[in-house]
User: What shape does this take?
Amino acid sequence: MKKNPRFQLVRTGTDTVRWRLLGGNNVSLGSGACEYARTEDCLAAIDWVGHHHTELTGEFSHSSGGRWRWRLRSDTELIAVASHAYGRRIEAQRSLERFHAGVAEAISGQEIDTIADWRTKYARHSQDNSEYGSD
Assistant: This one.
């Protein structure tokens, strides 16, 4: 059974949440650029992106290693970012196109779940263990 693109809320800390867009194959297509203290604010941001994503300005940048990323901006703020870097600009452009198509499909389905960010969990554990490796 193929899943449709959908938004997911990611708990990034004890008091923060952000959104990301997953494709039908569960690969992250992009993420919200900021964190929210309240789930309701994050859901409102998803709704706003769903209705305004075609009006946002896409930007492409690359690091010194040649890894390309896209970003979406409104007139005043950064709204969404690529989930990972790409080896070529054309790949980043195609990723942004998939993001736009995914938003359009996900907003009509409105299936949203919430998960905890595993990176936060493991970052906390690595900080707890850092005192043991410094002898």
